[in-house]
From TrEMBL:
Span of domain ABC transporter: 6-256
Superkingdom per UniProt: Bacteria
Short name of any one Pfam family annotated for the protein: ABC_tran
Compartments reported by the entry: Cell inner membrane
Gene3D superfamilies per UniProt: P-loop containing nucleotide triphosphate hydrolases
Family annotation (InterPro entries): AAA+_ATPase, ABC_Ni/Peptide_Import, ABC_transporter-like_ATP-bd, ABC_transporter-like_CS, Oligopep_ABC_C, P-loop_NTPase
Family: Belongs to the ABC transporter superfamily.
Protein name in UniProt: Peptide/nickel transport system ATP-binding protein
Membrane topology recorded in Swiss-Prot or TrEMBL: Peripheral membrane protein
Keyword Cell membrane: yes
Keyword Nucleotide-binding (UniProt): yes
Main location (coarse class): membrane
Amino acid sequence: MSTPLLDIAGLSTHFFTKAGVVKAVEDVSFSLDRGEVLGLVGESGSGKSMTGYSIMGLIDPPGRIVSGRIMFDGRDLRTLAPEAMRRLRGGRIAMVFQDPMMTLNPVLRVDVQMIEAVLAHEKVSRQAALARAREVLTKVGIASPDERLRSYPHQFSGGMRQRVAIAIALLNGPDLIIADEPTTALDVTIQGQILSEVQRLARDSGTALIWITHDLSVVAGLADRICVMYAGRIVEQGTTEAVLNHSAHPYTQGLLDSVPSRNVRGQPLRQIPGMTPSLLNLSPGCAFRDRCSQAFDRCATLPETQIVGSDAEVHPQSVRCHRPLHPGEPA
């Protein structure tokens, strides 16, 4: 069995505030092979983006990673010196942020930013770097790339800026891309074009991809596997087919029931009752129990992860629940 490109075990990221400890990521474990696409899904505030920031080493005080390991190509990223981590970012590991202005400098032209992103990691001529920038802009659907390269970020629409940010992530042919809801601001046509491009990238070059989203319809056609997060923890993971068609956690089933295409025409969408709990000093036990129709006394204790499916030998379906659903059983 080959060693996974990324292997995360017991990752916990906490924020130590005056009001208490916010457990943004708690005991998260998953692995990712080369060329594999992993969908990280859940409601806002479930810890998806913070998991990505933790992998990238972008946690600022009062937050910090308190436990766990992040093995990337055989090296624990938590042990790397800041300079070594900077060399990895943008080179072997790239991240596409939900807000493109977290990537783009508003006072520099796009060509300057893209050329510098290449030269920071490779010894090539500026002309070669410019040619590569032109190529990736075309791949993400930007017409007249030469003209756009001479523009400033404020001269782009929000969707165009996001496409430039995605292009920058593709510049150096990274081994791993973490995409934090990068297509939210894009129209359906461009979204489809970018999804097709990242799938081709994963297939042809072996680039691994973590796609963070709340849109199950996107990961259904993109991801090989899915991890479902709730209140900082992964509550279910498995192959895309297993998680979407044979969901075992009531929360996963609740997310699926809220997708319009899965509901009867003319009938109101089923909703998950209640609100996402505050991550500040979470009470013991299952964080979903107050919203779960399957909850019983034992849910006051924290459930362990258990295997519920045997459709995949390497990545079997697992769920963190005391009373997992049977395939097809409603939440």
